[in-house]
Specification:
Helix content is 36%, strand content 19%. The protein has 380 residues and is of the alpha/beta class. It has a domain at 47-284: 3-Layer(aba) Sandwich (Aspartate Aminotransferase, domain 2). The strands form four sheets. A seven-stranded mixed beta sheet has the order 4-12-11-10-7-5-6, sandwiched between helices. Helix 3 (70-83) runs parallel beside helix 8 (269-284) and helix 9 (287-308) packs parallel to helix 11. It starts with 13 loop residues before the first strand and ends with a helix. The relative contact order is 0.17.
Length: 380
């Protein structure tokens, strides 16, 4: 049997990681400014994480959600305290797409509607409802194209208000910092206006914090820069530092009904232990503060490079979620970074490098990255 060939791959086999560094099977070291799609939050192979997950695995890896799992309740209490939503409810699943699926289902169960407003360039996942609210027709199969979604420009409040006024909108779903969409930031004016309009017209506001959340922006959630409290918040990626996990944070206005939502693997013992270890390290090492401080420093250094390098046309982002827009396709620059300078980054669109390093990223690493990037751009 062969693998189903849907991923274009770098010809590199990563076999080891520590902190913000990974190594391939030839012993070559790489600086990791991508963290496996923003998944690595506390750093690769953090010793506390390894110890906690190993200890739990030695006791019990999995049992079903038909019995009490006190780790789930502990995680709900700890997460609520850490993010400032201790009055919300927590539903645990396995991925970001699944988190968005369940959030959209819960919204529709609540108001009985089916139409969703989503932003142009949005990415919310690859499964049924999640892909339908993703603004990329190349990955929406005909079976997913059910006509539920209206795409609107991010930050065009008048356009969103006009659609909400029609009275048939189930939910509005937004990334407060678009990841795949090119590190585009929602404005406070837009977010606050949208939140108020959703309440006025009976629609549910969902903030997709799967990539921009969990400390990456320099606050626990990116929407907390904007002065809003969404009805539903979806998380994944950094919650488990590589262990597959997702969750929906649910306003107390939503009342749970037995059987309404469900999952086999969600909230299992190993996943909860991984998530608790992540919160331990985030709090002990002040990683949210580090994301804010180091991210600000990194953006400052990149803007200084922009002033002397015509290939950089824009630097944007918040915390350790940064986009570098180039005056050329990113492909050659990204390949030079990987194969010559041994740095992993992400990308979006055709011209933007996307930086999503672990939240333990340091100013010294920022300086090193900028120096290596300069060498690649000078060679163009």
């Amino acid at each position: 049997m062969k693998l189903f060939d849907v991923y274009p791959l770098f010809d590199i086999n990563i076999v080891k990681g520590r902190g913000c560094t990974v190594w391939d099977d030839n012993g070559q070291e790489y600086l990791d400014l991508y963290g496996g799609h923003a998944v690595i939050s506390i750093g690769h192979c953090h010793p506390h994480y390894i110890e906690m997950v190993g200890r739990q695995l030695d006791m019990l890896g999995f049992y079903s959600n038909s019995v009490i799992n006190r780790l789930q309740a502990e995680l709900a209490e700890r997460l609520g305290r850490a993010c400032g939503y201790d009055d919300y409810q927590l539903f645990l699943i396995n991925s970001g797409a699944e988190a968005n699926e369940n959030a959209l289902k819960l919204a529709s169960f609540t108001n009985g509607r089916t139409r969703v407003l989503s932003a142009e360039k949005a990415f919310h996942g690859r499964t049924s409802l999640a892909v339908e609210v993703t603004n990329n027709p190349k990955i929406i199969a005909p079976i997913n194209d059910c006509g539920h979604t209206t795409y609107l420009p991010l930050n065009d409040l008048a356009a969103w208000e006009a659609e909400l006024a029609k009275g048939d909108v189930c939910a509005c779903i937004i990334e407060c910092i678009q990841g795949v969409g090119g590190i585009r930031l929602a404005t406070p004016e837009f977010a606050q206006g949208l939140a108020e309009a959703c309440k006025r017209h009976g629609a549910v506001l969902i903030c997709d914090e799967i990539q921009c959340g969990y400390g990456r922006s320099g606050r626990f959630f990116a929407h907390q820069w904007l002065g809003i409290r969404p009805d539903l918040i979806t998380v994944a990626k950094g919650i488990g530092n590589g262990f597959p996990m997702g969750a929906v944070l649910i306003s107390p206005e939503f009342k749970p009904v037995y059987g309404q939502l469900g999952t086999t693997f969600g909230g299992n013992h190993l996943a909860c232990t991984a998530a608790l270890a992540v919160l331990d390290v985030m709090e002990e090492e002040r990683l949210v503060d580090n994301a804010r401080e180091t991210g600000s420093y990194l953006m400052g250094q990149l803007k200084a490079l922009q002033a002397s390098c015509s290939h950089i046309t824009d630097v944007r982002g918040r915390g350790l979620m940064v986009g570098i827009e180039l005056d050329m396709p990113y492909k050659d620059v990204r390949n030079r970074l990987v194969y010559e300078e041994h740095v992993f980054t992400g990308c979006s669109g055709t011209n933007t490098l996307r930086l999503l390093p672990p939240l333990c990223f340091t100013k010294a690493m920022a300086d090193e990255f900028v120096a290596r990037l300069k060498k690649c751009l000078d060679a163009q």
